[in-house]
Each structure stands twice: as structure tokens, then as C-alpha cells.
Design brief:
Keywords: Isomerase. The protein contains eight helices and 14 strands. The chain has helices spanning 4-23, 38-54, 71-83, 88-91, 101-109, 148-154, 191-200, 239-247; strands at 62-65, 95-98, 114-115, 125-128, 132-133, 139-140, 160-165, 182-186, 206-209, 227-232, 252-255, 257-258, 264-268, 274-278. Strands 3-2-1-4-7-13-14 form a seven-stranded mixed sheet, with helices on both faces.
Length: 282
């Protein structure tokens, strides 16, 4: 039976929970519990530093959240700001724009407010991963098939921050480490034509229609209901020119070459260190 004494006990418990929630402080990176793998510790440290050093809690309101294993920690860190009494009122006003289904889930799971790019076409800051990063902060992206939306969000902000691990860093040219080829998002009905043009007009070494693998029969379908072609060109001397040539082909929606787009990159190393690459000018 529910009695006044049980009511008082419930009130005390609720009060204790509220006091506990209000007392939660943003965890320091140096005090975080160790994860199972050294590289995961480094990826988390890179993502947390990227957020701490670039997110302006007091001014930023629309935040782009990408996808990938390192970006998981970006959403986690922003969610920790939401739990801290010092920042809660500001972070609760954030709207987080996703680049795909995975990032939408990250936003929701961390208690953040989800918005769509149609409502918020201008983003204050965006965080995303990359498949390859060259010394000039040019990127190859799209290995996870979130391609067009990633570029839409990243080009809608001046502060595009990349988080990844050091295995994604190329010390020479794009294409030297990410050998699967440049992802190219294409309208399904045009994929054969684009495949032919990439091979015959742009001299791609190979062009493969990406398949769903064990989990899906047939081609991978993007969130925008398009196909992905992976076009291998070897080492890419001029990513900007190649992007423009591919983009000019009829049927191409977007390329995975992100040129002159990223502002800063945080790379987690297996030894626990975090390395940064900064664009000379915004």
C-alpha cells in the first residue's frame, strides 16, 4: 500500500538522484578508465580533445555529427557536457545534425537534440571521421557509404574537424593508403554509364560497384537511395582536379574526395598519443 511514509521516501530518492545528476562533472581525459585496446584509448582521447578544444559551448548551437568508430566518442563527449551542471543549460539548446543513420542514433543515444540539414542549412561546427588524410588535410571519405550527406554537412560549416586514428594518415598522396578506391555516389540507373566513363575517360585502374556483402544481397544503397562505385586511380596527384572531372560525369551525385574542406584533424595513435594537423588558414 502507498503510504505517506513511502511517499516521503520516494521524494528523498528523487531528490538524491537530482543532486547526483547535478554533481556530475565533465570527466578529465587523464582520469578516464582504460578501455580494452590501446588504439581505442587513443581514438577516445583524440575525439575528446577535438570537442574540448573546438566546441564553443556558449556560442555554437548547430553541431554536425558524422559517423565512424572515432566519432562515437565525439557524441559521447558532447553528451557528457550535457550532464555537467555548468554546461547543461547551453548544451540543451544544441541541435545536432546527422550525416546518416548511424550518426542519428549516436545523437539520440547521448541525449542530444536531433535536427535535419533541411531545417539547419548552416552549421556552426562539424565533426566527422575519414578513410584517408593527406598532409594538406585533403580527405577520402565514403568508405561507410555516408557520402553525399557527409559532404553536405561538412561544407555547410567553416569549422570542419576530423577525428580518426593514425592508420588513416597518408604521408604522401591520397590513394596510397586507402587502396579500395575513391567512393563515387551515383544515381542507380546511371551506374553502368559512370563506370564506363571512369574507366575510359578518366583512366581509372578499376571501378567496382560496391556490394552489400554477407548482410545484403546486391549493391550497397546509400541513405539517399543511390549506389556507390569505388574507383581506384592509385596515388592521386591532384585531388581537386580529379574531383571536378568525376563530378562532371552525368549520373554522379558526389565524390569521396573532400578537398580544401577540413580545418583541423585529430589523430589517435596506438601508443596513446594524439597528433594534430591544422589548416594554415580558415
Amino acid at each position: 500500500m502507498f503510504t505517506p511514509s513511502t511517499s516521503k521516501g520516494l521524494v528523498r530518492k528523487i531528490g538524491a538522484i537530482k543532486r547526483f545528476m547535478a554533481s556530475i562533472k565533465l570527466p578529465k581525459i587523464s582520469e578516464l578508465p582504460v578501455l580494452g585496446h590501446p588504439l581505442e584509448n587513443a581514438k577516445r582521447a583524440a575525439a575528446y580533445r577535438a570537442v574540448d578544444e573546438n566546441l564553443d559551448v556558449y556560442k555554437h548551437r548547430v553541431i554536425g555529427i558524422g559517423s565512424g568508430s572515432t566519432v562515437v566518442y565525439v557524441a559521447q563527449r558532447i553528451g557528457q557536457y550535457l550532464k555537467d551542471d555548468e554546461y547543461r543549460d547551453y548544451v540543451s539548446k544544441f541541435t545536432c545534425v546527422a550525416t546518416g543513420y548511424q550518426s542519428k542514433q549516436l545523437i539520440i543515444e547521448n541525449g542530444l537534440s536531433y535536427g535535419i540539414i533541411e531545417q539547419y542549412p548552416y552549421v556552426d561546427i562539424a565533426f566527422d571521421g575519414a578513410d584517408e588524410i593527406d598532409p594538406n588535410l585533403n580527405l577520402i571519405k565514403g568508405g561507410g557509404a555516408c557520402l553525399f550527406q557527409e559532404k553536405l554537412v561538412s561544407t555547410s560549416t567553416k569549422l570542419f574537424i576530423v577525428v580518426a586514428d593514425t592508420s588513416k594518415k597518408s604521408y604522401t598522396k591520397l590513394g596510397s593508403r586507402w587502396t579500395q578506391g575513391v567512393p563515387v555516389e551515383v544515381v542507380p540507373v546511371a551506374f553502368a554509364r559512370v563506370q564506363h566513363d571512369l574507366l575510359k575517360l578518366l583512366n581509372a585502374r578499376t571501378v567496382t560497384l560496391r556490394q552489400g556483402g554477407k548482410s545484403k544481397m546486391g549493391p550497397v544503397v546509400t541513405d539517399n537511395m543511390n549506389f556507390i562505385l569505388d574507383a581506384c586511380f592509385g596515388d592521386i596527384d591532384d585531388p581537386g582536379t580529379l574531383h571536378q572531372k568525376i563530378k562532371s560525369l552525368v549520373g554522379v551525385v558526389e565524390t569521396g574526395l573532400f578537398v580544401d574542406n577540413a580545418y583541423k584533424c585529430y589523430l589517435g595513435d596506438s601508443d596513446g598519443e594524439v597528433h594534430t594537423i591544422v589548416k594554415e588558414s580558415v
